[in-house]
Design a protein that fits this description.
Blueprint (H helix, E strand, L loop, with lengths): L1 H23 L3 H22 L1
Protein name: MATE efflux family protein
Organism: Solanum tuberosum (Potato)
């Protein structure tokens, strides 16, 4: 259970860094696509576990 939480905390941290970098570079569309892609990735990983 703890490893599951650590996995999702790590993914959320990566999403936060990527979104911040894309917004800092002034690319809002790239930010949107990265959030959508990574949200799908989280969903797939969650469904794969259960």
């Amino acid at each position: 259970m703890l490893m599951d939480a650590m996995l999702f905390i790590g993914i959320n941290a990566a999403i936060s860094v990527r979104v911040s970098n894309e917004l800092g570079l002034g690319r809002p569309m790239a930010t949107k696509y990265s959030v959508v892609f990574q949200s799908i990735l989280i969903g797939i990983l969650y469904m794969k576990q259960y």
